[in-house]
Each structure stands twice: as structure tokens, then as C-alpha cells.
Amino acid sequence: MKKEIFFVLVLLLALLLTACQQFTLLDEIRLKSDETSNTEDDATDEETEAPPLTQLTLELERVRVNFTETIELYPAGGTPPYSYSIEEVDLFYKDPGGNLGSFTGNTYTAWKSVGKVNIVLEDSGTFVVKKALTLRPPAPHTLAGSKYDSITAEIEWIFSELEEMIDGFIITSVNSDNIESKINVGRDTRNYQDKHGSETGSFTYSIQSTANGMVSLPTDPITVHMAP
Fold first, then answer.
1. Would you say 89 and 117 are in contact if contact means Cβ atoms under 8 Å apart?
2. What are the angstrom distances between the C-alpha of 94 and each of 69, 162, 166, 172?
3. In sequence order, what are the beta bridge partners of 215?
4. Is 197 left (phi over 0), alpha (psi -120 to 50) or beta?
5. Domains of the chain with bracketed CATH
6. How far apart are CA 107 and CA 92, in angstroms?
7. Residue 146 forms beta bridges with which residues?
8. Band of residue 14 on the pLDDT scale cut at 50, 70, 90
9. Which pLDDT value is given to residue 21?
10. 106 neighbors 186 (Cβ within 8 angstroms)
11. What span, in angstroms and rounded, lies between the C-alpha atoms of 177 and 167?
12. pTM (2 decimals)?
């Protein structure tokens, strides 16, 4: 009887040890599975983490734009997409419609305003940057020249825009005795006589319109020949 009880106890002890070993193995499997899952989650978090923001910058093709001209804009950094606007700073003449220019993609087209403005760039985050731009006055055209008398050359031109856009013209002689003369607007006949005092030689001229120190592009030069 005692032997039977002993064998039963030994059998129960063996079954208990086997069960403990099985539970320990399952726990190890679960632990390794959890570790693997956590590692994958960490890796996923690292992959989807947004890169740090960089400073927003803007460069312009030119810092002076001619009348109705289009220039390229070069944005960088920040968080695209970008948006543009234009800010009035110091205008000599403002288009009656309030038009300071327009944007198409990364280009800017000036309109019929004259003076200083800021191009304003904003990204999709919190960055804003401004770049100064000068809107040049319109240039005169159809420059012509002739011999007025034996020692005087006369030049003529047309200015087809509104006179309010400018405050005068600058005549430049590009020959040996260079001159610059500012002529006010408001004259019916737009001409200038250069009494240079020479009966021979050739004299070359160009002209620009001016607005509060800002100047337009020069006209193509013309040459007056004084020789008979």
C-alpha cells in the first residue's frame, strides 16, 4: 500500500514538473514575440518621423524689374507648397486698379506701378520671408536725332505712358564730352538740343525716364553726324 502511494506521488510530481516547463517555454515565446513587436514599432516610428524644418529662403532673378516684365522666383526650404503676395513699400505711382503685379507659379510679372515693393513668400508651416524689389518706370521710345545747326544736335523721343508715372528724363551723351541733363515732363514737344560747339564729328545719345531717383531702361542709342 505504501509503495502504491509512493508511486502515485512520484507520478504527480513528474506531471507537475512537465507542466511548469511548458509554461516557462510559452512565457519565453511570448516575451520574444513582444520584444520583436516593440522593435518593429520603434523602427516604424523612426521611419515616419518628419524631417526637421529648414529655414525658408527666397531669391529673385533680378532685384529691379522693368515695366511689365516677368522674372523668375526661387524659393527653397520650409514646407511646400508655397504662396506669394506683394506688399507696398514706397510707390511713386500706383496703378489706378491697385495692381502691383501678378504671380504664376514661381514667376512674377510687374504691372503699371512704379516704386518699391516686397515680394512675400509663405510656406505651409509658419515661415514667412520678404525680398525687396524695385519696379522701374516705363522707358521712352522712338528716339531720333538730327543736325539742328552747324554746332547743335537735336534729339526727339516719344513717351506714350501717363506723365504721372515719371518726373523727368535723363539725356546721356556717350561721345567724348559726356553730358547728363534732366528734362522735366509736361512739354508738348519732347526734344533736346545739345549745343556742343563742334561742326564736325559724330555724337551719340540715349535717354531714360526717371521717377524719384529710379531710372528706366535706356533707349537704343542714336548718332547725329555733324559733318556737312
1. yes
2. 16, 12, 11, 28
3. 210
4. left
5. 57-135 (2.60.40.10), 141-225 (2.60.40.10)
6. 23
7. 154
8. low
9. 53
10. no
11. 26
12. 0.69
How many residues are listed for the chain in this entry? 228
Instruction: Judge contact between 136 and 117, C-beta under 8 A.
Output: no
Strands, E assignment, the chain: 57-60, 64-65, 70-76, 83-93, 102-104, 107-109, 114-122, 128-135, 141-149, 152-158, 168-173, 180-183, 191-195, 202-211, 214-215, 222-225
Helix (H, G, I), strand (E, B) or coil at 182: strand
Cell of 104: 504664376
Which three cell numbers mark 165? 508715372
Question: Mind listing the pLDDT tens digit for each residue in 30-85?
Answer: 545 555 555 544 444 445 555 555 899 999 999 999 989 999 999 999 999 999 99
Over range 165-183, report the average pLDDT: 76
